[in-house]
Specification:
77% of the residues lie in helices and 12% in strands. The longest helix is centred in the C-terminal third of the chain and has 64 residues. With 112 residues, the protein is of the alpha+beta class. The chain has one domain.
Amino acid sequence: MAQAVVTIAGRAYRMGCEEGEQAHIEELARLLDARIADLRGVFGEIGEQRIVVMAALTLSDELFAAKKQLAETQAELETARLRQQEVSDWAAKALDKATAKVTAATKALNET
């Protein structure tokens, strides 16, 4: 098992991960550490555990909002796909009717 060494809030942590995932784990740690730094800039020193929990909650809130937006976008795409299918079906039926009329008109002209 591979390991990544990350620093969060001034503390180093050795994290086990799958081979090749080290850079991803390190990036996640940088994201969390940056959020902690941002919150410290706003709130000052309010306690290590509290600032880490606040950072985790703000990141979780962003993830929740992103998942909600993704679900809404997927629903909109499904609605658009269904509407496109309805339009395609309507166009196919209209084309069938037009073809039948042209065929009937051609037959009528050929009989005269």
